[in-house]
Design a protein that fits this description.
The chain is of the alpha+beta class. The chain has two helices and three strands. The relative contact order is 0.17.
């Protein structure tokens, strides 16, 4: 395995968290009693540029599919949610020196 940033060989294990299924993958009700796919979570640190990374054992397309529950930061739901949160925070701390400005 080589570093994604500087192409240096990776030999130093930073942290080995064993294995687990993808964190936000939702299991369909009819598959609840079936074995989930687990992936190793062993991270390596590059001794040249210090980037910590995991080995790509599975392509992103097979993990981040329709069953993966994650909305991007710029999704319409999240944009609306955080704008509303800024308005609420500003109302709660209106006498504070801090202000939260929605984008």
């Amino acid at each position: 395995m080589k570093c994604r940033h500087c192409n240096n060989p990776l030999t130093h294990v930073f942290c080995d968290l064993q294995t687990c299924p993808p964190s936000n993958a939702m299991v369909k009700p009819e598959l609840i009693n079936c074995q989930e796919t687990y992936f190793p979570l062993k991270t390596f640190v590059c001794e040249k540029c210090w980037l910590v990374q995991v080995d790509e054992l599975e392509k992103a397309e097979s993990i981040f599919n329709i069953t993966f529950a994650n909305a991007g930061a710029s999704s319409p739901f999240n944009v609306t949610f955080f704008k509303d949160a800024c308005i609420i925070c500003n109302a709660c701390i209106s006498k504070s020196i801090f202000k939260f400005t929605p984008m």
